[in-house]
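[step 3/7] inverse_fold.run input=structure_tokens len=285
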């Protein structure tokens, strides 16, 4: 049986190839990265040298194609402001094209917020923008909608909304989901026990389709069930709890889905959180 895909969002100082190598050093078999600053619209062009160095690092570490990119925090595909929506669409197209150059197969996006327009209008605008993104980006790159905590007017805090977007894009083959454990708990999905975890995953399968789940963010939560607050905690030290993570990394349905931590204090604590996932993954179900 192939080894599970467990890892972390790695800092990219010095280049994406350095992020991959640092990830491998702390036990990652998958990594997540930013290909550009998540707080800026501008991005550097991907050079042939940078792309080659990144692919070499992936090959040499054994991480291969098990890399996930996270898009800019500025992007809002549902924005009521047409200029911002167009800028967001172009920004996500740029991110997916960069990933095509690097050979990164998955891009995670928060998609956006309706900002008072209402959920229906927000989803319609997001779907229209996503259609454009998918039409204008490489066939090798899949767009993943991230589950959210439901703060403010942010979309995709429910499996119903995710399922609606899949339907609005006619089940596009390059459209998937990244499930964040902190976010789904904050949104009201109780996955803290074996029974709860199974119920949550069954509902996801019914409303979205388990085949659409292409990545997982393994984060504990500082705030309780249904709080709608997005604050990550170290694994096993928050409101999600150890049992949920044990279920996650022993779930046979997710054996080849990248599970990455985005917990606080990356430089000093990612190694410990990755080690916890490996320990749980080797425990008896």
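[step 3/7] decode complete -> sequence:
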């Amino acid at each position: 049986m192939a080894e599970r895909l467990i890892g972390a969002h790695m800092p990219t100082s010095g280049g994406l190839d350095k992020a991959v190598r640092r990830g491998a050093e702390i036990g990652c078999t998958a990594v997540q990265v930013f290909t550009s600053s998540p707080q800026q619209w501008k991005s550097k062009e991907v050079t042939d040298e940078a792309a080659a160095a990144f692919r070499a690092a992936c090959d040499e570490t054994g991480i291969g194609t098990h890399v996930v990119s996270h898009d800019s925090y500025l992007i809002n595909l549902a924005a009521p402001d047409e200029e911002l929506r167009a800028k967001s669409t172009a920004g996500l197209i740029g991110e997916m094209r960069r990933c095509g150059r690097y050979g990164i197969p998955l891009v995670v996006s928060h998609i956006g917020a309706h900002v008072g327009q209402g959920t229906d209008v927000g989803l319609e605008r997001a779907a229209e923008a996503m259609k454009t993104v998918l039409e204008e980006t490489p066939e090798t790159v899949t767009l993943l909608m991230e589950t959210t905590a439901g703060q403010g007017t942010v979309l995709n805090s429910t499996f119903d909304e995710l399922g609606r977007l899949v339907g609005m894009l006619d089940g596009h083959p390059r459209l998937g989901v990244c499930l964040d454990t902190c976010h789904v708990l904050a949104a009201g999905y109780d996955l803290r026990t074996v029974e709860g975890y199974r119920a949550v995953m069954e509902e996801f399968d019914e409303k979205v389709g388990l085949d659409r789940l292409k990545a997982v963010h393994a984060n504990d939560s500082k705030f309780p069930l249904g709080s709608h607050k997005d604050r990550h905690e170290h694994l096993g030290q928050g409101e999600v709890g150890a049992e949920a993570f044990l279920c996650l990394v022993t779930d046979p349905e997710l054996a080849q889905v990248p599970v990455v931590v985005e917990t606080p204090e990356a430089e000093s604590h990612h190694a410990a959180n990755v080690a916890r996932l490996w320990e749980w993954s080797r425990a008896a179900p």
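[step 4/7] annotate
The longest helix spans residues 82-102.
Residues 205 and 211 are 8 Å apart (CA to CA).
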